[in-house]
Amino acid sequence: MKPENLETAARMAKKRSELKALLDLLTSYVNQAEVTVCVRLPYATSGDKQACIQSDTFNALMAKLVETEIENIDKFVEQL
What we know:
- Helices cover about 60% and strands about 10% of the residues.
- The protein is of the alpha+beta class.
- Strands 1-2 form a two-stranded antiparallel ribbon.
């Protein structure tokens, strides 16, 4: 790996680690998982907007999405 790519590889490793933790949770507790999305609105006076969903199907889809993103990160880092 080229030295100039080390910073990018470190960022990808951190992102992969966070996604792996999320994947571990979703695949371990799929029946009880709750996915929460929080949007921070810097100029809104009403504060953050948040929505939650608890659904076996949605959790499985999220797990697959996270798994695919981890695979994409692995392929990207291999190319560095």
